[in-house]
Structures are given as structure tokens and as C-alpha cells.
Design goal:
With 401 residues, the protein is an alpha/beta fold. The protein has 11 helices and 21 strands. Helix 1 crosses helix 3, helix 5 crosses helix 6 and helix 10 crosses helix 11. The longest helix is centred in the middle third of the chain and has 19 residues. Bound molecules: pyridoxal-5'-phosphate (PLP).
Length: 401
């Protein structure tokens, strides 16, 4: 049986995605695009985003976990998928046998992979992640040149790429970004002198694509947040007209009109008076709408911005409508759409995802990643629904998505 879609939905604008993809590609013309699809494409739905980017000409995808790789593979995505992190042996082996591109960040791990590949009589495609200043997962060695030469001396590995990751590309100061790029460049040249070269060399994330889209020696880039139409921070160059891809909407399911003083929600933190009108909207922290927006968040309704009243519960929020009217005198009604995030304050009154992130003292990444699978994703092209992803039925598309 087909279950009706909930009114609470994440609308995913594929035209916006396309436009962002093209704008970012134009920043680094001719470079291969490796979209970051980890965390379910930052909450946008990895399969639909992968299909779209595949059509747009992406070369490869980047994910963080083995399961994310299998979701793409089982969903029919044929492009190579790079798993960005080193893995435990059982994970690496399952991913390797299924054809994932694995990341090497130490000689020890490279040896394990090489031994496994030789036992299996396969050649494993890999890329080396170099720590140039992220200080997390990359290859960190007093002598990276020798470490990489030793990795190249191992058998059964096809080492197709060298990549690194910026730790401060979203900050205004670019000194450390340049330091990281310079150390990559120096090593890449030294390796080339020893006869070691790579099909792909990539480093830029969104901040670097926007601010320092340098090409030497890079021939690829890995956009994440900017692909989804959001800037990594307020400090980067924000002139590129990126368009937010996700907009979360819901509908007013009930309106309470009070004839006496009362309180709304857990903890009784919001008091109402006779004449108050309070709307109930079916979204809560169980969907990833942050509880920290209790008594602080705003939602959009017909171009206006209305306050969240009381605590955000697991499944619902309350909105104070008491003084709300459109310029021609209409009041909000049951069934009306409200915009929770990804809105345009001047057009629909809804908060932007960055507004929500600021209220939560976090980054936009955490907000879109946090909208969880209970919220159906509705894929839109030219305003028409071309696909859907639900918790129960997974991802379905119709026609050419
Ligand atoms: C290794 C790696 N590359 C690329 C990205 C994409 O970064 P951004 O979303 O800032 O573009 C990430 C995301 O954190 C990452 O971890």
C-alpha cells in the first residue's frame, strides 16, 4: 500500500543543484568534479544527487562510510566511489571486493590492502590522502616522499590519486591554505621527479573553490556544501549566486484559540492569553528540527516570519499566530504551508538554513545533515515532482530525474 506523504517534507530543487554545479565547475574549468555525497549528500539524498551529478559530468563521488558506498552502488550508480577514510579490515575488504576506491593514509594500512588484494588475486584501486595540515586522517610522516615510494613499491595496488584536505579554507585569512597547498605542490613535484605521478590530484573543498581555486598541481576538486547552495561560512567570497537546494516545509495541522490564560508545551515555557491563536505544525527534533529553536526559531508563512512558541517537541512545534494577518487581512488557516528552513526571508518569510545555523551556534552543514530520514525528500525539477525518498520505501524516481 502506498502511504500518503507527510506534510513535513524536504523539497530538493534539482535545478538549483544543477546551477550550483555549473557555477562551481566554472571556478575550476576543466578540472574533474568529485562531489562529496557523504552523510546522505549532506541530508539531500545521496542517490538522487548522485544521479543528477552523474548526468552533469561528475567523474567520481566521495563518501565517508562503506555503507554509503553500497547505497550508491546498489542504487545503480556506476561512477567510481572514493571512500575518504581508512577503514577496519572487514569493512575495507567488503568495499574492495565490491569495487570501491579506497583511501590509503599510512604505509601499514597500504600493506594490509596490498596483502589482501594479492590473496584475492585482484588489483585494488586506491588514492593516497596526504596530511598537509588537517591533522586528522591523512598520511602523516616525517618523510612523506619515502612513505609514498614505499607504498608504490607494494604489489596489487593501483594508486590513482593523491589528495589532501584544507583545515581553514572557510576562514578569511589564507596563509595556512597557501601553506597546505605549497606542501602538497612540493611533494607532488618531488614525487614526479622520482617517476611517481597520479591520474588525479585534488584538494579543494567549497571554501577553496570559492576563494583560492588554484590549479597547480590540481586537476580535480571535491565540492560539498556549495553544491547544496550554501556557503561554508560568512568569511568566504559570497559573490557566486549559489541557490539553496533544500527547503523544509510543513503545514499547519491544528489551530488552538484560547479564551483564558494557558501555557504551551513541555516545561510550560510559553504563556498565552485570551485571544491567542497558536498553530501546531508536525515537525520536531525527531525530524532533526533542532530543539534549541524552542522559543527562538521562526517559521515563514505567506511572506511573514512567525515565532516558535514554547519548546520544540519530538514531533511538533507550536507557532504563535495571534497578531498575524496578510496585508489584505487573511489569517493563517489549518492546511497552510509553513517554511521551516531553506527559505527566503524577503519572499516567503522562512528562515534561511544559515539563519537556523546561527541561532544554533553551528554551521549550515549540521542543519541539513540533521534533517533525518523521517522527513521525505521530494525532488523537484521546474517545480514538478520527479522523485521521492521516504523512510519506508527508499528512493523512487520517475522519468528522467
Ligand atoms: C575530505 C573531504 N573533502 C571534501 C569535503 C567537502 O567539503 P565542503 O562541504 O566544505 O565543500 C569534505 C567535507 O567535509 C571532506 O571531508
Amino acid at each position: 500500500m502506498q502511504v500518503p506523504l507527510r506534510p513535513t517534507r524536504a523539497l530538493i530543487n534539482l535545478d538549483a543543484l544543477r546551477s550550483n554545479y555549473r557555477l562551481l565547475s566554472a571556478q575550476m574549468p576543466g578540472a574533474v568534479v568529485i562531489p562529496a555525497l557523504k552523510a546522505n549528500a549532506y541530508g539531500h539524498g545521496a542517490l538522487a544527487i548522485a544521479q543528477e551529478c552523474q548526468e552533469l559530468g561528475a567523474t567520481m563521488f566521495a563518501v565517508a562510510t562503506v555503507e554509503e558506498f553500497f547505497i550508491l552502488r546498489d542504487g545503480g550508480i556506476s561512477l567510481p566511489v572514493l571512500i575518504l577514510q581508512e577503514l577496519f579490515a572487514e569493512e575495507a575488504e567488503a568495499a574492495a571486493l565490491a569495487g570501491a576506491v579506497l583511501t590509503i593514509a599510512s604505509l601499514k594500512y597500504a600493506k594490509q590492502l596490498s596483502e589482501f588484494a594479492s590473496r584475492q588475486k585482484i588489483t585494488l584501486t586506491t588514492q593516497i590522502n596526504l596530511d598537509t595540515g588537517m591533522g586528522r586522517m591523512g598520511l602523516h610522516s616525517a618523510n612523506p616522499l619515502e612513505a609514498i615510494r614505499a607504498i608504490f613499491a607494494l604489489g596489487s595496488l593501483n594508486i590513482e590519486g593523491l589528495f589532501s584536505h584544507f583545515s581553514t579554507s572557510d576562514e578569511a585569512g589564507k596563509t595556512f591554505v597557501q601553506t597546505q597547498m605549497a606542501s602538497f605542490r612540493t611533494l607532488s613535484r618531488a614525487l614526479a621527479e622520482k617517476g611517481i605521478s597520479f591520474r588525479y590530484q585534488h584538494m579543494a573543498n567549497s571554501g577553496a573553490i570559492l576563494d583560492t581555486p588554484d590549479r597547480d598541481p590540481f586537476n580535480g576538486f571535491r565540492p560539498g556544501i556549495a553544491l547544496y547552495g550554501l556557503f561554508p561560512s560568512t568569511e568566504v567570497n559570497r559573490t557566486l549566486p549559489l541557490a539553496p537546494v533544500m527547503k523544509v516545509v510543513s503545514r499547519i495541522v491544528k489551530i488552538n484559540e484560547y479564551d483564558r490564560p494557558w501555557t504551551v508545551g513541555y516545561g510550560r515555557t510559553y504563556a498565552v492569553n485570551p485571544g491567542s491563536r497558536i498553530a501546531i505544525v508536525p515537525i520536531g527534533y525527531g525530524d532533526g528540527y533542532p530543539r534549541g529553536l524552542s522559543n527562538r526559531g521562526k517559521v515563514g508563512w505567506k511572506g511573514q516570519s512567525l515565532p516558535v512558541a514554547g519548546r520544540v517537541s519530538m514531533d511538533m512545534i507550536a507557532i504563535d499566530l495571534t497578531r498575524t494577518r496578510t496585508p489584505d487581512g487573511q489569517k493563517p488557516q489549518v492546511g497552510d504551508e509553513v517554511i521551516l528552513l531553506g527559505g527566503s526571508p524577503k519572499i516567503d518569510g522562512g528562515p534561511t538554513t544559515e539563519d537556523i545555523a546561527n541561532l544554533q551556534e553551528t554551521i549550515a552543514y549540521e542543519i541539513t545533515c540533521g534533517i533525518n530520514a523521517r522527513v521525505p525528500r521530494i525532488y523537484l525539477r521546474e517545480g514538478r515532482m520527479v522523485g521521492v525518498e521516504t523512510l519506508r520505501e527508499g528512493y523512487r524516481s520517475w522519468g528522467s530525474i
